[in-house]
Amino acid sequence: MIALQKISKEQEKEKEIKKKLGIAKTIELPIGGSIFYFDIPDHPMVYVSETSGIIYINGSAYWEPQILMLKDLTNEFVNQTVELAKAVNETVTKIDDVKLGFDEKKNVEKRKFYLLIGDNVEIGFYYNLYLPDGKRNGIIEMVPYYKEYK
User: Fold this and answer.
1) DSSP class per residue in 65-81
2) Residue 147 and residue 143: Cα distance in Å, rounded?
3) Mean pLDDT per segment of 10 residues, for the chain of length 150 residues?
4) Pairing between strand 46-51 and 54-59?
5) The pTM of the whole model exceeds 0.90
């Protein structure tokens, strides 16, 4: 019982610190057998959610805050992937962001962001930028993946 109380006190202290830093919530996402943690800042114009392993960023009519949130999540992803590579005695050998295509009918840009760990592990996410077009607000959809080459 004492151990449980100690853990819950530590968790409450952590929540308090995050609240002071402006962190609204933390999303836990399993990618390739590891858990990635994304601290989502409190932002009145952007909402970040996760459903079935897919992260969604949406918001008001302003597109720039959503792009800034994407950059923030991408930076967190890079930092955690670099730490993961160090843990398995590997290095990140490549970081790239590739445009896969553009659907003019739906006004969607399809992209892939990834890091190559060593020579045989690729970890990243596909993302779709549903650009604002007057009929809808912009939405960003991030689908993480892990690929091991032999």
Assistant:
1) HHHHHHHHHHHHHHHHH
2) 13
3) 57 65 76 84 83 89 87 93 91 96 94 94 95 87 92
4) antiparallel
5) no
